[in-house]
Write a structure and sequence with these properties.
- It is a single chain.
- This protein has a domain of about 100 residues: Helix Hairpins (Orthogonal Bundle), CATH 1.10.287.
- Helix 1 runs antiparallel to helix 2.
- The longest helix is centred in the last third of the chain and has 83 residues.
- With about 150 residues, it is mainly alpha-helical.
- The protein is about 85% helix and about 0% strand.
Amino acid sequence: MIPFRFRLESLLRIRRDERDAARRAHAQAVDARRIVEDRIGSAEEELAETRNRAAASAAPGAVDVDRLMHTHRYALLLGSRVGHLRGQAAKIDEEIARRMEQLAKADREVRLLEKLRERKLETHREDAFRREQRAIDEMAQQVSLRRGDSP
């Protein structure tokens, strides 16, 4: 039997490598998003604590104005950091969507080539079966002719 050889095997291997690279790139973007979310959470917690300290510093009684001003400035800085991180998260979300599209496209290309390979393999098997059947039929016919049987 002639061994099956898929002519596009190297292309299939390249497409699989591209799909795997797209999968890794998508995973990296998702990890980056998780890291930014963790940073946003930490910054928001720190902002809440800073606001609570500012509220406690502004309570009736003796007020340390410098400390209160410093706390408000720090709260503004933290608010700005949270806004910046949210902007980064939005950009990462766009990148995740773009990478997801690339991954889906690469996966479709691999599936298409794999399906083509399966069809070609099935055709190869059917052809091989037919060739074997023909060979068996010819041998049976030759044996039959040698014995002197009539067809």
